[in-house]
Amino acid sequence: MPKVKTNRGAAKRFKRTKSGEFKRTKAFNRHLKTAKNAKRKRNYRKSAMLDQSEKKRIRRLLPYSA
């Protein structure tokens, strides 16, 4: 079997945790921040876990993530 290529875009966006879940960064934190309150902007800085419905798709894109 040939080696499977890792999707580089997905590799930059998702990191696998030790328990096998995927961490991701939150969206909506690039611009138009003046309209958002401080609490909302602060919560964007925290990482989030990937939803279980997306897990199979991302695992296929990252075949060698430990």
Descriptive account of the structure:
The chain has 66 residues and is an alpha+beta fold. The chain has a single domain, classed as Factor Xa Inhibitor, CATH 4.10.410. It contains three helices and three strands; from the N terminus they run αββαβα. Strands 1-2-3 form a three-stranded antiparallel sheet.
CATH names the topology as: Factor Xa Inhibitor
Instruction: Output the helix-strand order.
Output: HEEHEH
The second-level CATH architecture is Irregular
Low-confidence stretches: none
Mean pLDDT: 95
- Provide the CATH top-level class: Few Secondary Structures
- Main sheet strand line-up: 1-2-3
Q: What is the overall number of helices?
A: 3
Quick recap of the structure?
The protein is an alpha+beta fold. Helix content is 32%, strand content 11%.
Keywords:
66 residues, alpha+beta, Factor Xa Inhibitor, three-stranded antiparallel sheet, 3 strands
SSE arrangement:
Blueprint: H1 8-13, E1 15-16, E2 22-24, H2 38-45, E3 48-49, H3 55-61
Antiparallel strand pairs: 1-2, 2-3
